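Record 1 of the preview.
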Amino acid sequence: MGVNQEIIASARTALSQLVPGRKVAGLVPLGNGHINETFLVTFVTGELRQVVLQRLNRAVFPEPEKIMANLAILAEHLAARVAREPPGGADPRMVVRPLGGQDGRGFFDDPSGDFWRLISYVEDAEHQEVLVTPELAREAGRGLGVFHRLVADLDPTLLVDTLPGFHCAPGYLAAYDRQFAAGQCGPALPGEDNCRAMIAARRGLTEILEGAARRGEILPRVIHGDPRLANLLFDRSSRQAVALVDLDTVKPGLLHYDLGDCLRSCCNPAGDDLEDLAEVSFDLEICRGVLAGYLAEAGATLSPVDYQLIYPAVRLLAFELGLRFFSDHLAGDVYFKTTRPAQNLQRALVQFRLLESIEAQEVEIRAIVAAWQRQ
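->
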């Protein structure tokens, strides 16, 4: 029995424990995340016909119970805020809830130590692989902007940091330096020298946000942690952004990590897994649309310093992800899932090429931000 069938068998075992007696009509993989295994479950009968079943990667999230506690707090807050929204405001599907199993917990530890959980399914919604129109770009930005606006009054100290060190750029650089000191960075595959040169030339980027936070110029807020395009859902009919999913990384953090990662992801139409680096570029028109949607929703919550840090943030996030992909490649691909040899090395090269494209358009990106700040 292959690995995929083993996972499906484990998923069925988890379902038998979480929702005993319910007949399953369908169990299919959902999404394309790099970390967890996710399935859409369809039951034969019952009021809740479709739910999401997910196996959390304990190597990444060693205390998944804390994730569930965060998700419950977030869902309660979002539900209360959405209920007060005017017509045309936040979509109710923004509220993704943990679902209780037989014992009410909504999660199950299987005999092998894997952690399985049930969460609500966002109906009539889908991912967008690429933002092909200005309207979709604006909606992507609006989706993140609505989320940030709704959680702006949620006390970040109520949430647990479920992944310490995540989106702390100096920490990733320090880990890379330890790899280098341990001799893990010797010459090997083509492309590694390019990665090392990019990292050496731009080490100072990692202090941009953390330094501003230490000086009190920006404050911790509730962030999504991973608002890339793959985690945004759009209504199938209207194409409006309705929800952010994959909420495992919701935590206290710096808002610019979210906005920078959203822009990094959305404005790279060729995607992160690309063989031809010549196709990689940061799309300025998509950037214009994403920022328009985001700032129309969340711009009033930003300070002048927040506005000033938007360009440095998108530059940093491309660098940070390239650094993370390259470090994982050197470590033997222990964090990001891969399907072919040297895939994380190629992913790193894509991010560093994207970084160069961002830097080449600094004047234009800053001008887009400045125009919104003056409004």
